[in-house]
Design a protein that fits this description.
This is 3-isopropylmalate dehydratase. 31% of the residues lie in helices and 18% in strands. By secondary structure, the protein is of the alpha/beta class. It has two domains: 285 residues, Aconitase, domain 3 (2-Layer Sandwich), CATH 3.30.499; 172 residues, Aconitase, domain 3 (2-Layer Sandwich). The protein has a five-stranded parallel beta sheet. Helix 2 crosses helix 5. The protein binds 3-isopropylmalic acid and iron/sulfur cluster. The site of 3-isopropylmalic acid (IPM) has 7 residues, from loops.
Length: 468
Amino acid sequence: MGGETLLDKIWRDHVIRDFGDNTYLLHVDRAFLHELAAVAFESLKNARRPILSPELTFATVDHLLDTTPGRGDDTIIPNGKDFIQKLRAGARETGISFFDIDTAEQGIVHVIAPEQAVALPGTVFVCCDSHTSTIGGLGALAWGIGTTDIEHVMATGGIVQTKPQTMRVNFTGALPRGLTAKDLILHLIGEISADGGNGYAIEYAGPVIEQLGVEERLSICNMSIELSARLGLIAPDDVTYEYLAGRPYAPKGAQWDMALSYWRSLPSDPSAQYDRVIDIDCSVLTPQVTWGTSPEHVIGFHDHVPDPSQAETKREQASMSRALDYMELKPGMRIAGLPINAAFIGSCTNSRLSDLRAAAKVLEGRKIAEGVMAICSPGSAQTKRLAEAEGIDRIFKDAGFEWRESGCSLCMSGGAGGERFPDHARVVSSTNRNFEHRQGRNVKSHLASPETVAASAVAGRIAIAEHQ
Ligand SMILES: CC(C)[C@H](C(=O)O)[C@@H](O)C(=O)O
Ligand code: SF4
């Protein structure tokens, strides 16, 4: 018998009922909502179902917010106010914790949950958003659920789930200078495909992961969903505990000590078995940039756009050809040097203080290229404040970037109705999805790290920073 994995340990400590057949009723520790799920409050009210634990339920506004300085009319879509008002009313009536638009805690849900320590190691954490997998970077079981499911969680504190299979991805070798967490996860998606994590909980491990800061770990787990994984997670360690200590919702005093000794018991046992194990040698990697319309369409900065005729399956061939047409690229072209129209730094993947610092290092004393539209939207009000206290906003603005309020911003532009990049623009973006039309009509999105986005904005072409 092998030992237990991190997933096994957190899972078994949350089982309320084992139905057999790999299906369980799990206890949920935290539920987080954003305005697109505001209807949950209404449905619960209509059904006269109270929220079981308002003190464990949280909400903020992020998706539909206007992120232009001053926030204009608050929202970027015509009926955005309805969502926000419904959420506000629901929060007020039920007494949950609500980080409203103008509060110091507001931000993208996946940025503020760790920032405020609402999310903690060893917890089961759910939110009505696919990128909830981000929270796994703290060593939690966290995944996105639909609005009906979140209603159920709010009313009962439980959720029925099948237990995922386990995959371990070991990142080994010396990390080359300038290689970021974003490059690691993009590379993995390219290696095992956008479907490669289907049915799995992926534990990211190995010496490279251990050396990463919490914010970088969050970036990696964020994109687990782009692998179709149920969730991603990283064992908590001293780096995690140091990050959490003293944050607003972190346990204090004796409770902190108790939590810490529990958290220390969570990492996978050395003898634990996984359903699949993958090893990635990081020492040979270069900064990654996507060329197509799925995060799996990714290559190293120095590589050439692939040829669909080399694809292994007909399906893959068709998807690659379609992506090349949409992206207006030809097989064999170099991705390096491709002229761009816009650059975006933001989103729940890469809008934290460490991301903004890294981009600012590239931008310091430089100007973005003529004609490039460049936007930075910090992931939270707190991130924005801290960045401004360090003068990072000045560096961005002096370089020619727009320095925005926090929110999802142009990551998905509030859906088709929101603010978008100009039609047909080629955008280098620190976000997680390069799907067709996501950032605007016929907009061609290239995913990359914040450093690569900053260097590209300066060059006016896809470029990497000198230190990369
Ligand atoms: C709109 C929302 C529910 C969606 C998600 O679940 O991921 C969004 O955040 C996204 O990134 O596409
Ligand atoms: S920042 Fe983008 S990916 Fe993240 S939750 Fe918002 S819209 Fe979704």
